Amino acid sequence: MTHPVLLGIESSCDDTAAAVVAGGRLRSSVVSSQDVHETFGGVVPELASRDHQRLIVPVVQQALAEAEVAPGDLDAVAATYGPGLAGALLVGLSFAKAYAFGLDVPLVGVNHLEGHIYSVFIEPPAPAFPYLCLVVSGGHTQLVLVEDGFQHHLLGTTRDDAAGEAFDKVGTLLGLGYPGGPAIDRLAQEGDPSFHDFPRTRLGYDFSFSGLKTSVLYYLNEMPDDERAAFLQEHLADVCASFQQAIVDVLIDALRNALHETGVAHVAIVGGVSANTALRAAATDLADEEGVTLHIPHPRYSVDNAAMIAVTAHHKLAAGHTSPLTLTAAPSLAL
Question: What is the mean pLDDT of residues 156-164?
Fold first, then answer.
């Protein structure tokens, strides 16, 4: 298959997504985000699964239509099979398996984390191997040395809360709703990052953000309710900026140390938190200081999407990697 046409499906959490890649180039990318979870301050797995069931067919149909590709034109079907919510994964993977079987084309199972790592190949310029990749999302914070295609060396991971999870939980503490990350980012741009010195936990290449989250809670709880309300009305942006700066400092410090140790010339930051403006600015400064090339996907490819799944599957197919139709969902799948 010199120029294979692939359908990619992503349903690991609360986004139902489908994308078409032809010859390694993205032809369409459709994402339907679920707003049913906002009321609950987090993703409710059962509701996510039901919405995936409702949305999977129209999302796939839209992706094929926008790519001007008929089902019979597909050379393979790819889907995320882990990690993620069990029920959510099953919807996308089951659909992909049935579609591949019906079309008599190969199935390509994709690790969601690999999807993020290879999201920097969706749009040029792509990094050269080896490259250092920081994966920062709601469920994962990992530092990975990508030595070659699908050859990864995990340098560090989170020991408790991931960076995106900390953003969302602190957003809830501050009354910003769910998801809290984008709201904190917007407010922080108007605030003073030196307003309060929240703690930075540094564990080599591993990460821990639960202490930072707890520190914000204690900081707010030290004030009486009426005083806290008045304080946040005046200084909400400053608190957001200070909290955000603590996370950015920890991530950038780990990246800097890993760059010095590995000596690579390319570095990537991927996952939903890579859309954060302060992190992008700090990473750009770091890349300039260290003389390396920085790769960060467009924000629409930073959050969960199927374009990264389809592009990753394109590279896996080129390497001869396909999956059996007996492939099962793996909610705790590691990199």
Answer: 93
Please, what are the domains in the chain?
Answer: 5-119+301-318 (3.30.420.40), 125-296 (3.30.420.40)
Distance CA 267, CA 284 (A): 10
Q: How many whole angstroms separate alpha carbon 277 and alpha carbon 244? A: 10
- In this structure, the strands spanning 131-136 and 141-148 are antiparallel
Beta bridge partners of 9: 18, 79
**Predicted pLDDT at 41:** 65
Q: Where are the beta strands (DSSP E) in 168-265?
A: none
143 with 131: CB under 8 angstroms? no
Instruction: Kindly provide the residue ranges of all beta strands, DSSP E only, lying in 137-216, ordered along the sequence.
Output: 141-148, 151-157
CA distance 276 to 164: 10
Contacts of 151 (CB under 8 A, 6+ apart): none
Q: How far is CA 306 from the centre of its chain?
A: 11
- CA distances from residue 58 to 30, 32, 45, 239, 313 in whole angstroms, order as listed: 10, 10, 21, 42, 22
93 with 329: CB under 8 angstroms?
A: yes
pTM beyond 0.90: yes
> Model confidence over 186-245: pLDDT tens digits?
999 999 999 999 999 999 999 999 999 999 999 999 999 889 999 999 999 999 999 999
Structure tokens given for 117: 């790592």
Sign of CA dihedral 90, 154, 166, 194: negative
Q: How confident is the model at residue 36 (pLDDT cuts 50, 70, 90)?
A: low
Token code pair at residue 231: 């304080």
Question: Phi and psi dihedrals of 20, rounded to 5?
Answer: -120, 130
* CA 141 distance to own-chain centroid: 9
